[in-house]
Design a protein that fits this description.
mainly alpha, elongated, about 80% helix, 8 helices, single chain
Length: about 240
């Protein structure tokens, strides 16, 4: 006896069924439809004469609303793990050859700026101005460049994850900024330039360098990867 398979119309109905269960993200619907379809066809192996609607509801009773929620949480976790791995792999490249040379160079340049400032706050700010411009540029790119323009009527968990990463940037952006503010206050409270201050300045220079790499990864590299992945997986839903 030939195994029963879902027709294209029935598969399309499963997408509508997911929307009825308040699952509106299309990429999540695809996950759920795969699970439902496999379960329905397995059900038909056990009860070949069972009609489609009864098979669907029997399967849904097994899943339940909590089953849908579990699949959603698993999908969200999968996305977080995937792009966290992308983030840290990118950052890790700056601590291996050849990019570690750039990391060391930026750290030493910032360290040199701190050493030459000699507690002169105006000089410190003037030397650091290009870095502040750099922070402003990547913040602008984070907000504007790597957005995904979707056709109306569809939403995607992957696009929501991109928005979430962009919102995390607003928090992460403050870390090097506060580090610099801390150092400025440190300069203001220190009346004399002392040799042991070099260790503090080297540490701050490294932290600012590290968080700069982190911000570039979070604001440019990861959103770029997400956008590329989205266009590759769902080109028909992207506005040309």
């Amino acid at each position: 006896m030939t195994e029963r398979k879902l027709t294209p119309e029935q598969i399309e109905n499963l997408f509508s069924f997911c929307e009825e269960q308040e699952v509106y993200h299309y990429d999540l619907q695809m996950e759920l439809v795969d699970h439902l379809a496999a379960a329905i066809e397995q059900k038909w192996q056990e009860e070949p004469k069972l009609n489609y609607n009864k098979a669907l509801w029997a399967v849904f009773d097994q899943f339940g609303v909590s089953g849908f929620r579990k699949i959603r949480r698993a999908k969200e976790k999968e996305l977080r793990k995937k792009y966290s791995r992308v983030l840290w792999q990118y950052i890790g490249e700056f601590f291996k050859l050849p990019k570690i040379i750039l990391t060391i160079a930026i750290t030493l340049i910032l360290f040199g700026i701190f050493r030459k400032s000699e507690n002169n706050l105006d000089k410190f700010l003037l030397l650091l101005f290009p870095y502040l411009i750099f922070l402003a540029v990547i913040q602008f790119m984070n907000k504007k460049k790597y957005q995904i323009s979707l056709v109306p009527g569809k939403s995607f968990l992957l696009n929501d994850h991109l928005k979430w990463i962009k919102s995390r940037f607003d928090v992460s952006f403050q870390v090097p900024t506060f580090a610099l503010i801390f150092y400025i206050e440190y300069l203001q409270r220190t009346n004399a330039y002392q040799a042991h201050n070099a260790y503090v300045e080297l540490l701050i220079a490294f932290l600012v360098t590290f968080f700069s790499i982190f911000l570039v990864a979070m604001s440019i590299y990861v959103p770029k990867r997400i956008k590329e992945d989205f266009i590759r997986e769902f080109p028909q839903f992207v506005k040309s």
